[in-house]
Design brief:
alpha/beta; seven-stranded parallel β-sheet; 7 strands
């Protein structure tokens, strides 16, 4: 169980390979904080501004990041989505500004959610990302997140390159880290809403007519994709509740 202070936390969503679902996971966590009623702030260190559009709020880049951290001490959770090619740049910046010392002096809970999927290179990059965080932010609590969108690691054959990559790059950290699974969404239904910049929590509140307008699907299929996304959000919410030791609020 991961004990953190949501009123004074920084969540980094990271991973050195593109396409592992970092921004999707960041949005799931933002939706989770919203459901809990916690205040949150958002920063995206990436060439894309998807979180800004999804949440209709200011999303900062790396330049004013330290100012954001200073202003939000004790005010809520800051969610930082690090682009696939930004981990090394962020690590250099974090070392230059003594971010670990800043975090400890302000009693911040630092959590790095590190994404990977059932692909050898993503697992290798996840291990590199974990090392980068611990090198410059040794107080970081690691959470390895398996995104099962393209498959499940447990189904990979024993002795396969994927299994060996996990054994060599992630397994050594497991004794001092946490894990989280993001299951695949039936028929990738969430993509219809992500492409239209609709947050996942909001999908469950939409009427069939609103779903039809967003997706272009007929009424029956609109209800199905809404149900797929609602079930997915509920599943991830329960997993996050378990991770944080929070009573079921789904």
């Amino acid at each position: 169980m991961l004990k953190i202070n949501f009123q004074n936390a920084i969540f980094f969503i990271a991973g050195g390979k593109g396409g592992t679902g970092k921004t999707t996971t960041a949005q799931l966590i933002i939706d989770y904080l919203f459901l809990l009623g916690w205040q949150f702030f958002v920063a995206q260190v990436d060439r894309q501004a998807r979180l800004q559009v999804l949440n209709d709020c200011d999303v900062l880049t790396i330049d004013p990041l330290l100012d954001l951290f200073d202003k939000t001490i004790g005010a809520g959770t800051t969610v930082v989505d690090l682009g696939a090619n930004e981990v090394d740049r962020f690590a250099t910046w974090a070392a230059a500004v003594d971010l670990d010392e800043e975090a400890q002096n302000s009693d911040r809970s630092i959590v790095a959610f590190i994404l990977y999927n059932a692909e050898e290179q993503s697992i290798i990059e996840a291990g590199k990302t974990a090392k980068a965080f611990l090198r410059v932010l040794p107080s970081t609590k690691l959470v390895f997140v398996e995104n099962q969108r393209i498959g499940r690691l447990e189904l990979a054959p024993a002795g396969s390159a994927i299994r060996e990559a996990f054994k060599n790059n992630i397994q050594p950290f497991l004794a001092v880290s946490h894990t989280l699974v993001i299951p695949a969404v039936r028929a990738n239904s969430h993509m219809r809403f992500e492409q239209q910049r609709v947050s996942f929590t909001h999908v469950g509140l939409m009427s069939p007519d609103e779903i039809m307008a967003v997706t272009g699907l007929p009424k029956a299929q609109s209800k199905i994709v809404r149900g797929d996304v609602k079930f997915w959000v509920m599943t991830v919410t329960l997993a996050l509740n378990k991770l944080f030791g929070i009573e079921d609020q789904a």
